[in-house]
Amino acid sequence: VKEKVVKDETVTLTINGNISRSLSAIEDSLKEFAVGYLFNENMVKSLDDIKSIEIDGPQINVEIDDTLLKTNETVLCSDSAGGWRSKIKNVKAVVNPVESDFQVDVHELLDRIEELKNNAEIWQATGGTHVAGIVYKDQFIVKEDVSRHVAVDKVIGYGILHEFDLKNSY
User: Fold this and answer.
1) Coil, strand, or helix at residue 143?
2) 6 contact partners, CB below 8 Å, separation of at least 6
3) Cβ contact 143:154 at 8 Å
4) Pairing relation of β-strands 59-64 and 9-15?
5) Distance in Å from the first CA to the final CA of the chain
């Protein structure tokens, strides 16, 4: 029997040369992943806080504003299962509540869920990925990864890099 499988790699994200995490991920959209990760983990507040992102195969090296790093502080992590994200203990936590009156029609939301499934090409072929999407105006971006957190980071990073108004996105 021949079976299609997801090709993932061990990707290493290194921040300012001293915070390093390795994870399994599909080796695409790594810049988007890095940007989304930095924002989702409250390590940066704006793109101006990111000095550089260098990608060399599965290695991502990021330099961010040093004033955002602080030792012995706990970061608010999105990994509720106690995985690799929850191991980061030296980033200052910043909480920025979203203020928006943005609403989505229930029928549009249900249609987008179907569209998300229809655009999940790797998942359809292998059943081995998580799928995330972001909708802004008439744009609908879908990313897949073996990690649900990485898939979400990729779409958020895409939105930030392409100047999506996240207050009016879902």
Assistant:
1) strand
2) 26, 122, 126, 128, 129, 146
3) yes
4) parallel
5) 40
DSSP class of residue 133 equals E
Q: Exposure of 132 by Cβ count < 10 A (0-12 exposed, 13-18 middle, 19+ buried)?
A: buried
Angle of CA points 133, 123, 10, to nearest 5°: 90
- Cβ atoms of 83 and 52 closer than 8 Å: no
> Per-residue pLDDT for 142 more than 80?
yes
DSSP three-state, residue 96: coil
Spatial CB neighbours of 48, under 8 Å, sequence gap ≥ 6? none
Q: Are 30 and 143 in contact (CB under 8 A)?
A: no
Quick one: pLDDT at residue 79?
47
One-letter amino acid for residue 93 of the chain: A
